[in-house]
Amino acid sequence: MQSLRTILHLDMDAFFASIEQRDHPELRGKPVIVGGSIKERGVVATCSYEARRFGVHSAMPTVQAKRLCPNGIFLPVDRKKYVAVSKQLFRILERYSPVIEPLSIDEAFLDVTGCEKLFGSSRSIALQIKQSIQRELYLSASVGISYNKFLAKLASDLKKPNGLVEIKPEDLTRILHPLPISRFWGIGKKTEEKLQRLGLRTIGDVARMSIESMRQRIGSLADHIYQLSHGIDERPVKAVREVKSISQETTFATDVTAIRVLESALLEQVTTIARNMRRKQFAGKTITLKLRFAPFQTVTKRHTLSFPTADDHTLYAAAKQLLNHFEISGTKAIRLIGVSVSQFSHISDIQQISLFEDIHAATKKKELAKAVDAIKDRFGEHILTRASLIQKEGQNE
Ligand code: TTP
Ligand code: MG
């Protein structure tokens, strides 16, 4: 049974060419071709719909485009400008849903499930987005609406340019099944060829096959393709928000004065944060410690390391040092402790490990952290606990 979701897929129309037509009114209504030059054996990045009538399309050598459309207006790619417009586009989309998955410079999925109360029906949300883009950017977009990603993406392409198409469950046989198998989204050319060799031409042909014979003929991909042919696609819209920091906080049931209890809480928090960072492939430089003294005085201290890390030990050592700076004497009661790590880099960008670390030991530690993460992923967060945490739990008894 599929969960009920409402997903929009938005794709700008002739993106680079439309921006040029917007900025140069004399180009409107004309065949505009944006791409590399003939001299440099360039290819077409895109072209206006007027140029498409001549058979020009993306990735075609510009020399061939010139032959097909000799009176076309050929322009170079002004990538900086298009990236700036793309940023403005995504700012508009963010007003309508926090769950946005960009697919390219001019294309995104939006999960708008539950946004109906705020903005009206999914069709009305799509219309509002299209209108905002038109009013603010003077550009047109095509939007597809459906209950999953595959169908929403398909829908946005059905009435380009300036389209708005919704695919409902009852439309499957009418809209989906007559389409050629090249419209399956996310399957490679090889699989497509395999399906062709089986004599399957349309998505409907696939839907009518028995799943057993599909499995025999194309192996492990059979189930996925079969599901798509029946309009089933459970892939979620994956929001990529810029993560600026990862933090953890603990509010104690009773105010705490013992440093060991604070340290244990801190270790647990840092371990969780570090694991989360490794999962996201992040390494962070700045560690911020937050303490709330009873009744409600909150103080923070931060430290920036000379190198980014996702290592539990290094992060914990830094956090503990910050805690020591507070000189908790056992008299001041603490209600809340929290820690956050920020100033992230992507792990793949970090070539160097700390000069002060033994490389072998560092690798070992990383391997250990990876193994622990894998176990926790399988069995849950609380399966492995560090010795000092167990000690803390023992003390509490
Ligand atoms: P697309 O969305 O594929 O194309 P488009 O927006 O120009 O036209 P459509 O109305 O069919 O959506 O790609 C978006 C931009 O990405 C496009 O304007 C130019 C660039 N691009 C390339 O540079 N090379 C390519 O091969 C393709 C397909 C796109
Ligand atoms: Mg586009």
Automatic annotation (TrEMBL):
Residue ranges constituting the UmuC domain according to the UniProt record: 7-188
Subcellular compartments: Cytoplasm
Catalytic activity: DNA(n) + a 2'-deoxyribonucleoside 5'-triphosphate = DNA(n+1) + diphosphate
Alphabetical UniProt keywords: Cytoplasm, DNA damage, DNA repair, DNA replication, DNA-binding, DNA-directed DNA polymerase, Magnesium, Metal-binding, Mutator protein, Nucleotidyltransferase, Transferase
Coiled-coil regions listed in the entry: none
Superkingdom, natural source: Bacteria
E.C. designation(s): 2.7.7.7
Residues the record marks as site: Substrate discrimination: F16
UniProt-recorded Gene Ontology molecular function terms: DNA-directed DNA polymerase activity
Active site: E107
Pfam entry (one): IMS
Cofactor names: Mg(2+)
Binding-site residues, Mg(2+): D11, D106
NCBIfam families: PRK02406.1, PRK02794.1, PRK03348.1, PRK03858.1, PRK14133.1
Function per UniProt: Poorly processive, error-prone DNA polymerase involved in untargeted mutagenesis. Copies undamaged DNA at stalled replication forks, which arise in vivo from mismatched or misaligned primer ends. These misaligned primers can be extended by PolIV. Exhibits no 3'-5' exonuclease (proofreading) activity. May be involved in translesional synthesis, in conjunction with the beta clamp from PolIII.
Complexes and interactors: Monomer.
Family affiliation: Belongs to the DNA polymerase type-Y family.
Protein name in UniProt: DNA polymerase IV
Organism: Fodinisporobacter ferrooxydans
Taxonomic placement: Bacteria, Bacillati, Bacillota, Bacilli, Bacillales
Name of the gene encoding the protein in the UniProt record: dinB
